[in-house]
Amino acid sequence: MGTPPGAAGAGYFGAPAPAKRNDPRPALSPQLEMVFETRRGGDHSIPPPCSTPLVVRDKGSAGPHHMRSTLNLVPQTPALFRKLKLPFGLVINPMAAPGLRDDPIPTVDLGPGGPVRCAECKAYVNAYFRFVADGGRMVCNFCGAEQPVPPGYACPLDMEGRRRDAADRPELCCGSVDMVATAEYMAGGGRLHAFLATLPRRGRPASRPREVPRALADRDALDALHPDGAAWGELAARAAEAQVRPELYCLAAGPYMDVASLDAFARGAAGSLRFYPGFHAPADAARLQDDLRWALARPAGLEAVGRLRVSTGLSVGRCWGAFHRRTPTDLHFPAIDADQALAASIEVDEKAGGAGEAYAQFALLYTSPAGRRLVRVHTLALPITTGRSSAFRGADMDAVLALTARRVAAQAPGKALGACRDAVMAAAVDLLVAYRQHAAQQSDTSQLLLPEALQLLPLFSLGLSKNALFRRGVASWGWNDARLDERALWLHRLLTCPVEAMASIVYEASVFFGKAVPPATLEGLLGAHSLEALGPAPAPLPRLATPLSAAVNALLNEVCRQRGRLLRTRVLPAGVGGVDAFFSALVEDKAGSAGGSYADCLRQLHRAIVNKLS
Ligand SMILES: [Zn+2]
């Protein structure tokens, strides 16, 4: 059985740390739910890892399900930022499904004038706006502009200079709010659920078979991950302009259906894509039904436009995700749901934190399922640091992994397979070299030194480099390499999945029963007396009235519950395509998956770091 970080609700801090391991792994003990206040005593709280179940209390900053920063302490100057080589960015899931006991997102109606905004930079009023001149003027925390408070919104200040009504106004005390939008924000739209089973050969755009019938070598470029012609991107733009969001279900009965082109269509129109390789109705119907049910039930907004703002000294760099872009700053979504995350890199261009902290705000104008036009505003305040080691202490492993995965995946189309894997490892090496040069307490080069907050960086980098998108020569679904469609699927997932899903993507859970399985186990679990009696086709795991069947099904149900979706369970008799997929998930092993073992990876990283230092 693999070791699932997210699946079993296990957390990195769950078990008492064994005496300083030099090959850190996620701990596997179950985690208790933790009440997480987004700020404590007026200060930013560092979110625990994604695997910790949280009840979020909004104390003025958005919760980590909505916005997670790779850095919880922002280097103050561009010089310090460049020196530390820490990736800075945000993973944003504006419509994330709230936990049952989380603080709900309040809705505020500021009247016919609509949401209060900075006249200069258009940031929305938030808990960090300062009010001065007896409450008659306000100072924006994003650009620093002082301006009169709009008529009807002014309020006297208390002895400490706070508005007397601040605690009663959600927009002044919460990190996440829905503001009622005025008529000028109105737009007009729909969702398209398309089920595909074969290569789309006819009409326009159409695809051709592009899969090379041989295993790829490291020097082979992933050209066929580009869409088959510009028409796919044009179709996406037309769909987005018409407010149509494609939600594609690729039920691949055959070997190839050009998921890369379908992904370009889906992603360019803020759509989604689900892929069922080797689709076999008896085994896959339950999962398809569950995926469809969730697609219709999950929290979603329609006709949405989003924009990310950051405070003075910072700037927004690249954005990754599924959206349509008409202007450089606005991201358009015919529809956006709880499974759709964006990521954006942030640069430190000038001295940051003039207004005390660094701020980020993602505002999403959308239509709610009830037909209301709202602006969802998520604001995150991050403290500034001048310290080198504190910047490393404030790093967030899940967000760093999500940002690295997006950056490397986005460059994969057209790039050589080996160069993609090298890019994953080079990112880890650069960061660890900078840590050693500027922040580590020791200077002993005989050891691999890992920052406390990034202990899992080598393991997750290894897992990412072994993802099917970058893998070489590993048999999969009856083929002698990762299928091209499989690579394209992972490109889609790595670019769009919520930060909570990342750890289980690069370090996934599988269950395997080998040939030596006792007949009684086989009987109790599968109702078959021998492996031969299983038949040649993959079949779903049966539910039998035996204690073993009940226990295994209960375990799998729990994994599904934790992941928030039905997972495909299949019984794969030996020799059937798909068994290889299991072996390829053995990230820590040398056998089965391309590349070395975890120990090899640690040695290789250490050697690369020492080389760079000398
Ligand atoms: Zn402003």
From TrEMBL:
GO terms under cellular component: COPII vesicle coat; endoplasmic reticulum exit site
Keyword Transport: yes
Single biological process term from Gene Ontology: COPII-coated vesicle cargo loading
Regions crossing the membrane: none
Alphabetical keyword list: Protein transport, Transport
Domain Sec23/Sec24 beta-sandwich per the UniProt entry, residue ranges: 301-385
Entry GO MF terms: SNARE binding; zinc ion binding
Region feature (Disordered): 1-27, 40-68
Protein name per its UniProtKB record: Protein transport protein Sec24-like CEF
